[in-house]
Design a protein that fits this description.
It is a single chain. The protein is mainly alpha-helical and 414 residues long. It folds into 4 domains: 203 residues, Lysozyme; 61 residues, Membrane-bound Lytic Murein Transglycosylase D, Chain A; 57 residues, Membrane-bound Lytic Murein Transglycosylase D, Chain A; 47 residues, Membrane-bound Lytic Murein Transglycosylase D, Chain A (Roll). The chain is 43% helix and 9% strand. It contains 17 helices and 9 strands. Strands 3-4-5 form a 3-stranded antiparallel β-sheet. Strands 1-2 form a two-stranded antiparallel ribbon. It has a two-stranded antiparallel sheet with strand order 6-7. Strand 3 and strand 4 form a beta hairpin. Helix 1 packs parallel to helix 7, helix 3 packs across helix 7 and helix 6 packs antiparallel against helix 7. The longest helix has 25 residues. The N and C termini lie far apart (81 Å).
Length: 414
Amino acid sequence: MQKMRIYTKLLINLALLLSVHVNIHAQEVKTPAIVSYIERYAELAIQEMDRTGIPAAIKIAQGILETDAGRSELVQQSNNHFGIKCKTSWTGEKVYHDDDAAGECFRKYTSASDSYADHSDYLKSQPRYAFLFDYDLDDYKSWAWGLKKAGYATNPIYAQTLIKFIETYNLNSLNEFSYDDSSALSSYFNLLENDLGALTSLSKRAPLNESNTNSLNDDETKTEEAEVEKKSKPAEFQKGVFKINGLKVVYCKANQSLLSIAKKNHVHLSQLLSWNELPKSTTLLKEDQLIFLQKKKKHADKDIHIVQRGESLYDISQKEGVRLESLISINDIDKNKRLKNKEKIRLNNESTPGLRHFSKSSHNKKHIALHVVKQGESLYTIAKKYKTTIDSIKDANSMKRNELQVGQSLKIPK
């Protein structure tokens, strides 16, 4: 009886894989049930990816396979989306379901969210899955085969089926999104509901909702194209983490995922975007560039940067580890201004190196106010009151966090 059950299950899996294979080559409209499952649970998968580093593509593919796109008896009875059995450590509710053997014990959850979180915690806590987290987020084939190798499922075509789902529905695109980026997800869902051909272009496009800050008038286009063609060759940078202006930085290639860079270097995606002054919607790098792993400084150790052909103010900000807003302020320049070859861009407020220490201290004495924190005040309200920035106040007071205490004295740069 048990052999017959396993044989029947194998035939169903083979039929499912064949169906996916046919859909790929025939470019047919995707299965509505699977599209519905992806749209319903994508945000959960992305949220768990941000929390634990498990690719959203892999998690959704597993959910589709384990639940038959939300239609299986087990998931309807238990909210168990990943076929996780009770094991000896489980103390929660249980349901019994025929799987490899009759009446096997499975975990029961109050919600899909609990199931998604427990699946992440389960993979993270089991030593046999530890090697998976060495793979890149976008390396779905290694993740799929790794799950099979580690014994996640007895299904002999488990890895192949996950891979087919990911490729058919372009699930790897989910790895590039933030769970709260509703506009990006909506764009993906719209493409998902169209034919397969339209979907394959998503990962090759520019980041969603990102505007080009260096847009040109029509009569300037040819000039800019010529500048791009003559742009100086990029400098050679060492591999791995190194330092510029005393800050940790890595050199990354075009089309690399910002999320994967953040995960690899143990920082939050939101921090990485902020530190590198990139739009929140950025998912992939449009070109090779330096990515800082710490917040850039307001000035550099050296005084001047000599502009190379084709460089923008943002390029200089990244090369020197100086915030873009600081360069704009120091040089009294528009951020979109086209810079001339060999033009000098100042990296410090002080123009004379020998006077740097004296100027700085004099500046501080003349432009520092003292504020005593009152009940209900925040850094935002204080910064607004003195017409300065939160970062300026934090820097002046060597603060790492935004918390304030009533009666606390703050130095206010003006």
